[in-house]
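Practice set, problem 2.
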Amino acid sequence: MRLTRRAVALATAAIALPALMAATGAAASASAAADPAQAVTAGTKVTAASPAAAALAAVRPAAGSGPAHPVTAYVANFYSGTVTPIRTATNTALKPVKVGSGPRAIAITPDGKTAYVANLRSGTVTPIRTATNTALKPIRVAGTPYAIAITPDGKTAYVTGGKSATVTPINIATNTALTPVKVGGAGAVVAIAITPDGKTAYAVSNPGYSTVVPATVTPISTATNTALTPIRVGQGPDAIAITPDGKTAYVTNELGEHVTPISTATNTALKPIFVFPPAPDAIAFTPDGKTAYVTCIGYRGSAVFPIDTATNTAGKPISVDAQPDAIAITPDGKTAYVLSYDQGTVTAISTVTNTAGKSISVGAHPSFIAITPNGKTAYVFSSRWRTVTPISTATTTALKPIKVGIGPDAIAITP
């Protein structure tokens, strides 16, 4: 995800574009997703996520009321200023949709009708009607839009404002920005996640490499759009994700070498969960919420840690390829897919045995991964090769890459 490095750029200088490229949450945003409101399937970053996030909608349509549209993956292309729709049934790219400058996060409403794209360089959010893949009038928000999440009822989107230390709510019915919410703490607001009941959004403030200024997470009441008391977390927070039951939020602290659980009932930080190799980055939950999987991009090796959410204890590390930058878990909860930014690979991990399978190549510098709602296909984009690689989850094989725009930086999939 490298959100810490991007937070430094946002907090201390004009936007440094190369530092803003490789995400996840998140997303998410995703997203991650995890990245995702949080990227439940993609690992939220929501993913960071991407990302954070970029995020998949946390709430699916009711049984029997399936989407009226074909399932589509939307890829935000940072340098092209476009979004590429991909039909997941055929793995074909459709005509790119022109959005604002520097799209770097995307989230889709729970009904799948609208995708919201955060345009970092133009300071706007562009809604896209998924039925026609047409962009609507951009919405001006505060600061530099960095991450986005949507409430489970689909009524409000929350957009982080980077170094402006704000979160802007957007009324989805009218596509109008409401009064920005000033969050506590210092540094760039780099990630956001919303509880499954939609009552609280949690915004992550990252002061970068500062050892003096504390990093925080600010709860925001979605009923009143007011910020509550900031919660102190570890140094260099990268991503935040919330358990499916909504009881606990987990924050990965890349520089603090631990994960901070937060009780959403009391908005207090619990005992930190230390991991080694250090530098926890992306996070995703199994659908039953019993296990969180955290990628660690440590300087003494790379690994994925399973965390028992009942006891908040880390299990034995699972070795993977270098720089595991994003993670997503299939809807059946049986497999976690971890990408390696340095090696250009994806590794499948069995959640039953917590063992890693053989890595597969997906192109240089993969930055995010998202999985379709039916769990049949994972999508990984490569920023360097301007491609998205579909992976068949049945066979764990990479399919033919799909060409997209310049600098793919986020992905979200309709319900």
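Problem 2, part (b): a different protein.
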Amino acid sequence: MVRENMTHKGPAHGRSAWLLACSAAMMLPACSATPAVPKETLTAAPQPAEAAAGCNARSVQDLVGQYASALIAEGARQRAGAVRVRMIGHDEMVTREYDPGRLNLQLDPQGRVARVYCG
């Protein structure tokens, strides 16, 4: 009995290998890095006007030890030149993003101002 070779390496095999190689070559540019951006087009993002206002926590350090209220917080915001004010209760979870225009009043368990800082 004669066994036939089941692996056919005739012209059809060469054509499929060529098509596979061409397909892979066409996909390579998709994997390449993005073109470099010219240095002169890279500029810092413009800062919002409110961030430029800043915050001066030193000007309101006299609040430490005083009982906090909405009225005191608003007065502190104005004196510090801040855009926003945030009262942080004792053991309260807060976000940690930096905001140069925000005044933070951290309170103790009795509701008094324990720490004043910007950010």
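Answer key, part (b): The radius of gyration is 33 Å. Residues 62 and 116 are 9 Å apart (CA to CA).
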